[in-house]
Amino acid sequence: MTLSKMNKKTTRLNKKFERMKLFLYILPFMILLFIFSYYPLYGWIYAFFDYRPPLALKDCDFVGLQWFKSMVDSPVKVQQLLGILRNTFVMSGLGILTSWLPMVFAIFLAECRSSKFQKIVQTFTTTPNFISWVLVYFMAYSIFSSSGAMNNILMNLGLITEPIQFLEQESGTWLSMWAWNTWKGLGWSAIMYLAALGGIDQGLYEAARVDGAGRFKIIWHITIPGLLPTYFVLLLLSIANFLNNGMEQYFLFQNAFNSDHIQVLDLYVYNLAMKSGSYSLATAISILKTFVSVILLFSVNRFSKAVRGESIV
Amino acid sequence: MHKKKLTITDIIIYIVFSIFTLICIFPFYYLFINAISSNELSQAGKIIFLPKDIHFTNFKEVFKLSGLWHSAFISVARTVLGTAATVFGSAFLGFMFTQKEMWARKFWYRYTIITMYVSAGLIPWFITMKNLGLTNNFWAYIIPAFVTPFNIILVKTYVESTPYELQESAKLDGAGTLRMFFSIILPISVPILATVAIFSAVSQWNAFQDTLILMTDEKYYTLQYVLYKYINQASSLAASIKNSQSMSGMVGSLATQQTTRSIQFTVSIVVALPILMVYPLFQRFFVKGIMIGAVKG
To answer: pLDDT tens, A5-17?
Structure first.
């Protein structure tokens, strides 16, 4: 009796030991994750100090919420912050307004009957997604600079006599940033829809054809409804990422002429810290940004649960 | 299929796609013809649609610039090591997170995934890296690559889709967890690991921001960063061209003599070529990757 009890105890202990052993295998990775993703959160205290880089934090003054207040304490600063937010909203907004493009791309590409043509289009239009923004910037620079291809063509045609400074223009910055983004990502984003197209019940098409529906009727009543769930998820994700434009593209394309229109939040944080040395203010903005992003993500997720009965993250 | 005849709509569709495809290819073609044409003409922007006076000396000359070989080495090294780290880390963690016996498995899985959505921001991250001694340090490219939540989700989803009997029978044969990982899970996960490997290789090769923020010492510059420097600091590039020409002691004809533009074009091709070469071979993996990613979002 006692023996079997003891046995039971040892097997339980063994089991516990096994469970811990499995955890110990991943522990080193969890520590790495802690160091690179959780420990930096501690750095949020920089937002509450007047941190000046060469000094240690303990030698800097604690200023409470001063940096948060300073964002809105004078009309000039409010103006600046509004400008940054406007750029962020416009860039993300343009993306969301045209988020149906990849779907339409996929629908019409599937309409092309030559599968060879489809394959060529797909291969070449997805390639730009895999090159770096530095390379994209260099393409823009070499084609649109004053001695670039575009100006040479226009001058040869006699349309202009003086080169146009395409990249140094303030007007059109938003549109051209959107255009490069679309150039880079459109073909790639369409792949998801092309795959979703394969999942639509072929019987529906047959039935529609028997009923004498034309091409556009079929697209409107069968294809688009079939793709909408995919579109919906991607749309929600892009809303959740509304403030996260990233800085790489805008950093590369920014110059003295277009900075009023190109600074999005991520780039602004970088410029504040690395160019003006305002580490504390930059951190304060990052904190607000993270909070808004998490709230957006939660709301979008909740919305998705309510409407589709499924969460997206 | 319905009517075989090409309608007006069809023709419009074909034309629109052809134009967009051309717009996608043209910049690549443009860089290439400029890199192989007369340097004098390309500097003046005269090479637009067709190459002229084709020569390939640029590709030899450009590597004479100080530091370019080294940067190429750094780029290759971070791509190889960083990819190895990501593949190993996400394979192992993806598998471990399927092991139901693990202590507090759900907690640690969430702990890992949350980091995709909550970020401390640029400055706290930068200061952390600095405190860890990872500024001006090659390992800053590699160590963070071990844990990549998105890839962990991919592998976990994949492993969950494989028959559990494989693991069970291995257990009956007395294989431990590690043994099971190396001799069963790794071999059957090759398709998904190939996808992870290609995605992370591309992002390592293309990475720019980490060099920009963390590295001030030329020793750690990647090719991407060097290209950026060459574009933005054309005057210092011109100086270093002069330097390397006076060192080699010869000045060629104007058509092959290095100019800032010829070097920018040539380096851009060096940067683009690995991607363009592997892309057609691996296209199906990319497509598979985006599909699996879509399932779990």
So the answer is: 777 778 888 888 8
Q: For B225-263, write each residue's pLDDT tens digit.
A: 999 999 988 777 777 777 776 666 555 567 778 888 889
Which residue did the predictor score with more confidence, B66 or A234? A234
Domain limits at B109? 58-296
CA–centroid distance for A260 within its chain:
21
**B128 shares contact with chain A (CB less than 8 Å):** yes
Q: Which tokens in the block code for residue B128? A: 């952390």
Length of chain A counted residue by residue: 313
Tokens at residue B91, please? 């394979």
Collapsing DSSP states into helix, strand and coil, what is residue A80? helix
What's at A43, amino acid-wise?
G
Would you state the pLDDT for residue A132? 96
For CA atoms A106, A109, A113, A116, the dihedral sign is negative
The count of domains in chain B is 1
> Dihedral sign, CA of B255, B259, B265, B270?
positive
Which candidate from B24, B108, B208 shows the least CB-CB separation from A133? B208
Yes or no, beta carbons of B108 and A186 under 8 Å apart: no
Q: What are the residue ranges in chain B where pLDDT is below 70?
A: 1-4, 245-253, 286-297
Residue B27 lies in a domain: no
